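Let us work through a complete example step by step.
Step 1: write down the sequence.
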Amino acid sequence: MWSQWLAPALWLVLVCGAAASLSAQAPLSMTTTTLPPVTAGSQVRNKITVTGGSDPLTFRLSGGKLPPGLRLNPVKGSISGVPTATGTYRFQVTVSDSNIPAVQVQREFTLVVTAALGIEWKQPPTGNGEKIEGSVIVTNYSDRDFTLTVIVVAVNQIGRATALGYQEFTLQSGGQQLIPFGSGPGPGQYIVHADAVAEVPSTNSIYRARKQTDAPLLIQEPE
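Step 2: predict the structure and record it as tokens.
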């Protein structure tokens, strides 16, 4: 007799407990709203954080594209890897929980990948008598050391190139290097090009950066 009464009562307790648990469950919400900029050639690990819902959760890319070299972990919700191309990338991430039916939330993100290598004029090229002189500053924005080659040339109106400066060296992660240049290319009108090429053997990566003068520099015949 007691067992006949306890069985329905126990079932009712279990059902009520389950219902209370479901009603107390926090709604699924994606708390990450933005992603910080990253640098090409550097290791990236950004996590999309979520609260509420019923574990386990599943993450998927539901629109757009991630930067080349990055991937979304479907279980952890992390975006990781080494981006290989600069640019602005827009994509959508959807997370689903394990409720039946599943609850889903989605959000659009923008991820900016900046250059790993920078080159700027420190002293813009100028004509000084029969010479063209100036300097550039190169910067390693990545998290790895570079083998860096920098060459500066002056190209005249008929396409003849004269080297103004050349250096090859190792530039440490986060480092900068000032490179002066100067030479006498002869009379003519010249556009100056400064080219930097960085190699990272450990990742088999190559990065390039360039500066160029906007207007020709005039070098006159010596008097």
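Step 3: interpret the result. Helices lie at 2-24.
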